Amino acid sequence: xxxxxTIVGNVATDPTQGRTASGVTVTNFRLASTxxxxxxxxxxxxxxxxxxxxxxxxxxxxxxxxxxxxxGDSVIVTGRMKIRAWENNGxxxxxxxxxxxxxxxxxxxxxxxxxxxxxxxxxxPARSNGGGIVDDDPSATSPVETGDIDTAxxxxxxxxxxxxxxxxxxxxxxxxxx
Length: 178
Known about the structure:
This protein is mainly beta.
């Protein structure tokens, strides 16, 4: 039995993509969910604890996650949680895995631009941007549609915050030991 959960947190590692033994596309990343509380003595918010999750997104969700997410992004992930014990070279531990059903940016901390993708069919010719996202609008010319994902990220980061909103949260790579 698997529990369905929704986790709010930050992408802690850049998503990586591979294939299962049967050839299904899967994208994996680590998710950090830090709990906070208000400290009356200092009148500030303090981090209490961080829970770590391994997220796997399959098929088209995985393709879209790989094209859309990067380390530091605030996200909301819903999926089936599995807790498993592991042992490797005499070390033991517990891993909390989530098979994602849905992933989205957390809009409390920034903005995002949604672009619907379609699957190509013989009746409707479409073009792919090389990242698994198919675009059926041949007039589109942004870096994402033309396959230059690195340029798209650079362009997005070059945009100043319109309202001085909360800056992108980052995850200290030194805290990624597990």
